[in-house]
Amino acid sequence: MTYGERATAVPGAVLWERTLGPTPEHKRILPDGCMDILWDGRRLSVAGPDSTARLYASRADAFYVALRFSGGLGPALLGVSADELRDQTAALEDLWPSVQTRALTDQVAADSAAALQAWVAKRAASYQMDAFGPRVLKMAMAGTSVAAMADRLGVSCRQLHRRCLPIFGYGPRHLARVLRMGRALEETRWSTPLAQVAADCGYADQAHLSREVRALAGMTPTGLLQELRRS
């Protein structure tokens, strides 16, 4: 299996490519607060934000090219609310008019990476991005409390939750949990002890880290790290 990703000309959009070997694969997809538009060589689909990990089955010799959107960019450019696709993947033809779907599918089939990059650049150029999503994302990544987020944005906690649903698929508290787990897993790449990772990432203790990983990834931290190293 090979995997690579690179930034596009549009902030918040990353192009990634993944090629599998001759054996079918079941991969654990961890939640990250993002949406993807994905080409699998046959059709385009949109993967909504995951609230917890899910297993994705890939056929042998599969090849994927996709755009990953963060900070609310996906719902804005794709024209679909994130909470409508939470924990699911839908064919693009079920979300867009057939003429639009067919036009983009034909372009992507001819040159997948170039077509997706051209599409996102064109869509972003004609869309005025709301700063609300990126601001929430930045604060969630920093571990800002929901009350502090709401205060800085000039809204109530209830309004903040309601506005986050179509952007991220879930509220700011769950988004912060997902992003914190991502930071913790990234820190383990340096072989940092789990107790230190827990302290660095704002968990009460290692037991708290373990509970959160179990809740969001469905595995113990040790088991998840072993699985990630094999993938």
What do these coordinates show?
The protein is 47% helix and 18% strand. The protein is an alpha+beta fold and 231 residues long. The strands form 2 sheets. It has a 6-stranded antiparallel beta sheet. The protein has a two-stranded antiparallel ribbon with strand order 3-6. A hairpin with a 5-residue loop joins β1 and β2. The protein is globular.
The total domain count is 2
- End-to-end separation in angstroms reads 8 Å
CATH topology of the largest domain, by name, is: Immunoglobulin-like
Q: Supply the CATH architecture of the largest domain.
A: Sandwich
CATH top level assignment of the largest domain: Mainly Beta
Mean pLDDT: 94
Instruction: Give a count of the beta strands, DSSP E runs of length 2 or more.
Output: 8
Class computed from helices, strands and strand pairing: alpha+beta
Could you state the order of secondary-structure elements as H and E?
EEEEEEEHEHHHHHHHHH
Unreliable spans are none
User: What percent strand?
Assistant: 15-25%
Largest sheet: 6 strands, antiparallel
Shape: globular
Give the helix level as a range of percent. Answer: 40-55%
**Count of helices?**
10
Q: Order of strands across the biggest sheet?
A: 1-2-7-4-5-8
Q: If you compute it from the alpha carbons, what radius of gyration comes out, rounded to the nearest whole angstrom? A: 18 Å
Brief summary:
By secondary structure, this protein is an alpha+beta fold.
Question: How are the secondary structure elements laid out?
Answer:
Layout: E1 2-7, E2 13-19, E3 25-29, E4 35-39, E5 44-47, E6 54-58, E7 63-69, H1 73-78, E8 89-91, H2 98-110, H3 112-125, H4 132-141, H5 146-153, H6 157-168, H7 172-188, H8 194-200, H9 206-217, H10 221-230
Antiparallel strand pairs: 1-2, 2-7, 3-6, 4-5, 4-7, 5-8
